[in-house]
Structure formats: structure tokens, C-alpha cells
Write a structure and sequence with these properties.
Blueprint lengths: L1 H34 L5 H33 L11 H24 L9 H14 L1 H15 L4 H23 L5 E2 L4 H13 L5 E5 L9 E4 L2 E5 H6 L2 H17 L1 H22 L5 H38 L2 H14 L8 H4 L7 H12 L3 H14 L9
Parallel strand pairs: 2-4
Antiparallel strand pairs: 1-2, 3-4
Helix pairs in contact: 1-2, 1-3, 2-3, 2-5, 2-11, 3-4, 3-5, 4-6, 5-6, 5-10, 7-9, 9-11, 9-12, 10-11, 11-14, 12-14, 12-15
Length: about 400
């Protein structure tokens, strides 16, 4: 069967490319970051990480389309006998993306103040890959089975969801997220006072050690909120109230549960589309595969950004101090060495809006004078002038 032999050789070439390309563009971004001004490398690196995440996502539908084309061209005998197609589909790109992530994690210590050990880095790469790339590949396998009206489709889709959930828990542990409850202190007192004033059913307050990853964030678990210890150390008074109010707003509006329900709905919607809509032509098949991967992700990220805007708005309703809210965000982004702006294309893949979109939204709600906003931009850029902001 010459067609199968030709497809087999073509697959080997494609698989090698899938394994090498993510590491290759990671090394290119590392090289470009090293060539940037030393004082701006952290922010430059953060922008390159955004690009790598988008590229890693786009490789999934591209590899899916290529793999299906190779499999079709090798039928009826199969292009590599005695090998299950799911293994041939999942392993090459998983290895490639994991290799690329390993390059970026290994090199990231040169641009940030993370203090990861070798074991930490390997665990991070493992759990990030298992929480993102692998579930997507399993979901794609399930959609192929859905399109063929096979009962195994349910197995693959459930497996994708299970791997994703378990791996996110593993990722939290790998990142060093070990929250500890607090019963006193400024964070505890202000959180409960604000929750009581605004009728939020708060059941606990946690502090999260930043650990070797130097994570700067705030969190919501059920009816509990938490905050990185350095955020509590750096932020006080009205600015801390805004950060607390932001998490209480997530809690009161049920954003976590709503987000999970909508995520399930987005992916089930794609699965139903795969079941009912025929996609026989190659052009349609490629479009469907890109849409099946990208639409649920982009829809989920869009909802997440809407929730962030809403939490900001509710938080300033709690505090009534718009300027303190804006200062809190600027200081947080500066401490985390994150860029203040982001190109629209990259932002649609982000869970949070860029700093300046959040600042502008708060300024519109509070009718804050433009001179104050301009002063915040100057303050931010005094530390990071001429940064590659990707503003458009």
C-alpha cells in the first residue's frame, strides 16, 4: 500500500516538527529577551510569554488538522500499523509543548525573581501541560469520535475534563499555593468588616505564601477569600480595601460557579455542533477544528474579563474611593513587573483585562479627572519607561 507508506513517512516528518517547533520558538523568544535592555527584561519576557501561550494553543488545531489529513491519506491500511491513533495524535505535540515550556521555565529565572529548584521546574512543566495541552488533545479526540457518532466520544470528553481538573489541583501545589487561615490582623479585620457592611457571606480569610514562585494574586474559594502575603505587606488602608472588595465581589456574584457552568456549556455546545453538523470538505474540517479549540477558550476568557471588570466596579461601590482603587492596581502591576498595556489580539486570550483598560473603566464609573489618570501612567512608566507595551 504505497499511500500508507507515504503517509507514514509524512507523519514522521510532521511528528518531529510538532516535537521541535514549540521548543524552537521558545528559544527564539528567550534570545530576544536577552537582547533587550537589562532594566526592561522582566516586562519584555512577560510579553513573550503571552505570545508563547497563544502559539501553544494554536498548534493544537493545526496539528489536529494535519494529523487527520495524514490519517485519511493513509487509509484503508493505516499509516503506522499496530499503533493506536490516539497515541500517535497526543504524544508528539504533548512532548513538543512540554519541551517548549521547559525552555521558558528554565530561562524565566533570568528575567524574574522566581527561585524555582530543578524539581520545581519539572513539576511546573508537567502540571501546566497536563492542565492545558493534554485536555485539549483529549477533547479533540472526543470530537472526532462525536463526528463519527461513536460511543467512545463520551469517554474521551469525560477524560479530558477529569485530567484538566486534577491537573489544575496539581499545578496549584506545584506553584506553592498553600493557604493558611488567619484569625487576626488587618486583612482579617477589614475583610469581615466590609463583608458585614455589604451583606457578603464570608466564612474565612486566608493568606497565601508567595513561595519560590513569587506569586502575587488574590483568590476566592467557596465563601472564603485569600491574598498573597506580599500583597498584604505592601498594601494598606483604602488600597487594601479595594483588593478585598474585588474578591468579595467575585464571591457575592458567584463568579467562580458561573464561570465553571459556562465553560461546560461552551464545550458541550461544540460537541453538539460536531454531532449534528456534517464537516466533510477539507476546508470546512480545518475551520471546524480551529473553531472547536478556540471558541470555547476565547468565550471563557471573555467571560472571565467581564467578571474582572464587574468585580472592580462592585469593589469601588463598596469603598467609594476610586483613586485608591486605581493606585492599588498600578502598585500591584508594578510590584509584579507586569506590563500595563496589551495588544487587543493577545488580550482576547487573557483571563484578566490589561491594567489600563481596568483603570479607564474605573475612571469612567467614578468620573475621575483625566489629570489623575495621566499621573498614574507617568508613575507607572517612571519605573518602566519605553517598555514593549504591545499597545497596538
Amino acid at each position: 500500500m504505497p499511500e500508507a507508506r507515504l503517509a507514514s513517512k509524512s507523519y514522521l516528518v510532521a511528528a518531529v516538527g510538532a516535537m521541535l517547533l514549540p521548543a524552537a520558538w521558545s528559544m527564539v523568544f528567550v534570545w530576544m529577551a536577552f537582547r533587550s535592555d537589562e532594566s526592561k527584561r522582566a516586562l519584555t519576557w512577560f510579553n513573550y510569554l503571552r505570545r508563547m501561550r497563544v502559539l501553544n494553543l494554536l498548534t493544537i488545531p493545526a496539528w489536529w488538522s494535519l494529523f487527520d489529513w495524514l490519517a485519511d491519506s493513509g487509509r484503508p491500511g493505516g499509516f503506522i500499523p499496530d499503533w493506536p491513533g490516539c497515541v500517535l495524535f497526543i504524544l508528539p505535540l504533548t512532548f513538543g509543548v512540554a519541551s517548549g515550556r521547559l525552555v521558558s521555565v528554565w530561562s524565566g529565572v533570568n528575567f524574574t525573581d522566581h527561585r524555582w529548584t530543578i524539581v520545581d521546574k519539572l513539576r511546573l512543566v508537567l502540571w501546566v501541560t497536563l492542565s492545558s495541552t493534554v485536555p485539549m488533545l483529549l477533547f479533540a479526540t472526543g470530537l472526532d469520535a462525536v463526528g463519527d457518532h461513536k460511543m467512545t466520544s463520551l469517554f474521551w470528553i469525560v477524560l479530558a475534563a477529569t485530567v484538566g481538573v486534577v491537573a489544575r489541583l496539581g499545578l496549584r501545589a506545584a506553584e506553592g499555593l498553600k493557604p493558611r487561615a488567619v484569625k487576626s490582623g488587618e486583612l482579617f479585620k477589614r475583610s469581615y468588616a466590609m463583608a458585614k457592611r455589604n451583606g457578603v457571606p464570608l466564612r474565612g480569610v486566608f493568606v497565601v505564601p508567595t513561595g519560590r514562585g513569587r506569586l502575587l494574586n488574590a483568590y476566592t474559594w467557596g465563601n472564603r477569600i485569600g491574598m498573597a502575603d506580599v500583597c498584604v505587606h505592601w498594601t494598606h488602608g483604602a488600597q487594601l480595601d479595594f483588593l478585598i472588595g474585588h474578591e468579595l465581589a467575585h464571591l457575592r456574584r458567584g463568579h467562580a460557579l458561573k464561570g465553571q457552568v459556562l465553560d461546560i456549556a461552551f464545550y458541550l455546545g461544540v460537541a453538539l455542533l460536531a454531532f449534528f453538523v456534517p464537516h466533510s470538505s477539507p476546508a470546512w474540517s480545518i475551520q471546524f477544528k480551529f473553531g472547536a479549540i478556540l471558541i470555547p477558550v476565547l468565550a471563557s476568557r471573555f467571560v472571565s474579563r467581564r467578571f474582572e471588570f464587574e468585580a472592580d466596579r462592585v469593589a469601588v461601590e463598596y469603598t467609594r474611593d476610586f483613586e485608591a482603587a486605581m493606585r492599588a492596581l498600578v502598585n500591584l502591576y508594578r510590584r509584579a513587573e507586569m506590563p500595563g498595556a496589551c495588544a487587543e489580539f493577545y488580550e482576547i486570550f487573557q483571563t484578566h483585562p490589561s491594567l489600563w483598560r481596568r483603570i479607564d473603566a474605573i475612571a469612567r464609573v467614578g468620573r475621575v479627572r483625566t489629570s489623575f489618570v495621566a499621573g498614574l501612567r507617568t508613575q507607572f512608566n517612571d519605573k518602566a519607561s519605553d517598555l514593549p507595551s504591545e499597545a497596538g
